[in-house]
Design goal:
There is one protein chain. This protein is an alpha/beta fold. Helix content is 28%, strand content 27%. The chain folds into two domains: 2-193, 3-Layer(aba) Sandwich (Glycerol-3-phosphate (1)-acyltransferase), CATH 3.40.1130; 207-377, Nucleoside Triphosphate Pyrophosphohydrolase (Alpha-Beta Complex), CATH 3.90.79. It contains ten helices and 16 strands. The strands form two sheets. Strands 8, 9, 10, 11, 12, 13, 14, 15 and 16 form a nine-stranded mixed sheet that branches. A seven-stranded mixed sheet has the order 1-7-6-2-5-3-4, sandwiched between helices. Strand 8 and strand 9 (227-236) form a beta hairpin. Helix 5 (90-102) crosses helix 6 (128-136). The longest helix is centred in the middle third of the chain and has 19 residues, at 175-193. The protein is elongated.
Length: 383
């Protein structure tokens, strides 16, 4: 009853204000009376309502746990057949998903694991959706959305051909096979997106979007003993910052011919001994070098992949009391995992300050740490 009332109330909005066209809907109707896993790219928080209104059947979906934090949100999203993806509760998630599929329902999953705004990061699918489809012995149906939902603008949804999971039934599936299957789904979705004219042409880039990325830094989150932490480097340099300690994000300059993602992985390992996986650029800012020369500093949201903090004694930053290549005192340099609660304090000195202020705002937002597309900060001193 809740879903029927919701659909009636919102029907005018989704038919007169938001314009949506679903292509190849007949593929969905083929499996209308049996369980299936629908996988789609994820562009905005409006993707779930879009699916709810446009799919020719009742759907269930998996979503971030933040949508279920308060009683009102929990009631609302449960009413829409939502279920939270919570860390450490993989077994409960799998049981719920299989139960949905065995009742011949459709389960919508965004297998990228997050909203993705950078095209180069799109469709890097995780294996969870593939595993659920194989365990449930149901087909996977790939779909792609060409752009986020917006008032008075056409959004197109293209449905691909269903992919059978029969070949995996009755035997154990190893990780390599699972990854290969996920890559196959990813390739199909990429082909759907690459259909001529499907994705609108990009707008002309602004001047700052053309500035080369010369510095890559990592904003790496980790949960340790139930405490959320961020990897930082504690520094102290003579004749700088009133000789007080301060913190920076690990990272550094790109080598010649090196991609910014490769650079941030290398720099973080060299400086801290920690292995990371960059997910996407969270912030960018211009560093003014001279009157006619600028460089872009990119801050990646990163996933902790393992390792313990190891200080490199050969690095000039650790040689307190000595001087660097430019003749400046080196000071001290110490990698450290800092609890988020400590970082949120007003007197915490994390540089560059503008990036720190944006990070605090985004952490304070209840929805997600990755709140908006890449933010840009204009010209300014390297403070």
């Amino acid at each position: 009853m809740f879903r029927v009332i919701f659909k009636i109330i919102t029907w005018p909005f989704y038919h007169f204000l938001f314009w949506v066209r679903v292509e190849n809907k007949k593929e969905l109707r083929k499996y209308k009376k049996q369980g299936c896993v629908l996988v789609s790219n994820h562009l905005s928080n409006m993707d779930i309502p879009l699916m709810f209104h446009e799919m020719p059947r009742e759907i269930h979906f998996l979503s971030k746990p933040e949508l279920f934090k308060t009683p009102l949100k929990r009631w609302f999203f449960r009413g829409l057949n939502g279920y939270p993806i919570e860390q450490g509760k993989d077994l409960a998630l799998m049981k719920h998903s299989i139960s949905v599929l065995r009742r011949n329902k459709a389960l919508v999953i965004f297998p990228e694991g997050m909203r993705v705004f950078n095209p180069e990061d799109a469709l890097a699918l995780k294996n969870g959706a593939s595993l659920i489809a194989i365990k449930g012995n149901v087909p996977m149906i790939p779909m792609v959305i060409n752009r986020p939902l917006k008032l008075f603008r056409l959004t197109r949804v293209k449905v691909g051909t269903a992919i059978s999971t029969e070949e995996f039934q009755g035997r154990k599936v190893d990780k390599d096979e699972l990854t290969a299957f996920s890559n196959k789904v990813s390739d199909i979705m990429a082909d759907l997106l690459a259909t001529p004219g499907f994705v609108p042409k990009e707008k002309k880039k602004k001047w700052w979007e053309k500035v080369r990325v010369a510095v890559s830094r990592a904003i790496t989150f980790r949960v340790e003993d139930g405490v959320s932490k961020i990897l930082l480097i504690k520094r102290k340099k003579p004749n700088y910052n009133d000789n007080n300690e301060y913190y920076v994000f690990p990272g550094g300059h790109l080598d010649e011919g090196e991609h910014e993602k490769e650079a941030v992985v290398r720099e973080v390992f060299e400086e801290t001994g920690i292995n990371i996986a960059p997910l996407r650029i969270l912030y960018k800012r211009i560093r003014t070098l001279t009157k006619d020369d600028n460089e872009m500093e990119a801050f990646f949201i990163c996933e902790y992949k393992g390792g313990t903090i190891t200080m490199n004694p050969e690095s000039e930053e650790y040689q307190g009391g000595k001087v660097d290549k430019l003749g400046n005192p080196c000071g001290t340099y110490e990698p450290i995992w800092v609890p988020i609660d400590e970082i949120m304090k007003n007197d915490f000195d994390l540089k560059p300050r503008p990036i720190y202020e944006l990070l605090r705002k985004d952490i304070n937002k209840k929805g997600t740490r990755i709140v908006k597309p890449t933010r840009f900060l204009g010209k300014g001193e390297n403070k």
